[in-house]
Write a structure and sequence with these properties.
Blueprint: H1 4-10, E1 23-31, H2 36-40, H3 45-48, E2 53-60, E3 65-73, H4 77-83, H5 90-93, E4 101-107, E5 116-125, E6 128-137, H6 146-162
Antiparallel strand pairs: 1-2, 2-3, 3-6, 4-5, 5-6
Helix pairs in contact: 1-6
């Protein structure tokens, strides 16, 4: 379980993400006393009814890459496990994936940006669920292990915060 301040600390910062995503768009966590923030971040209503806090960290390079990491914290891992339905396969998430449960997904091309594509990972670590969305412009050279590196970093930062330590994990 991570409360608002702990959840915000677990969110990646400009020092923990790859250098080619150097512009921070936002980094904020909110307590869930009003489900508006939770719902506006795209979490299911059922999850918002049980969440303690939600957070968002978003980064861009203002040219051809964007990254959004959303976290939602519950009172215990049993609640998070009940809500999370991971069906990740090896071709989606790799061998020995990070986290307690994991699921990969494709990001559909947004309206107005048909030349962009992306991939995402939903991962549960204890009582926290993360949604990692990484998008890029067609033709951009992306390291093949970038999404895995980002997922490892997010899981490690959640683990560090859950252990009462300052989150310091970073991705290359």
């Amino acid at each position: 379980m991570l409360l608002t301040r702990q959840l915000e600390a677990a969110l990646p910062n400009q020092f923990s993400i790859p250098v080619d995503l150097d512009e921070s768009r936002t980094r904020k966590a909110w307590g869930n006393f009003d489900a508006t923030y939770c719902q506006s971040e795209g979490w299911p209503d059922e999850w918002c009814g049980e969440a303690l806090a939600v957070g968002l960290a978003a980064f861009t390079n203002l040219e051809d890459q964007e990254l959004a990491i959303r976290l939602i914290s519950f009172s215990n891992s049993t609640t998070a496990a009940r809500l999370f339905h991971g069906e990740g396969t090896v071709d989606e998430v790799g061998e020995n994936p990070p986290g307690d449960e994991i699921d990969g997904f494709e990001i559909e091309q947004p309206n107005g940006a048909p030349t962009w594509t992306g991939k995402g990972i939903n991962v549960r670590q204890g009582a926290v669920i993360a949604k990692i969305e990484y998008t890029w412009k067609a033709g951009t050279a992306i390291p093949s292990d970038r999404l895995r590196s980002l997922t490892d970093m997010v899981v490690q930062r959640i683990q560090q915060a859950q252990a009462g330590k300052p989150p310091t994990a970073s991705a290359q």
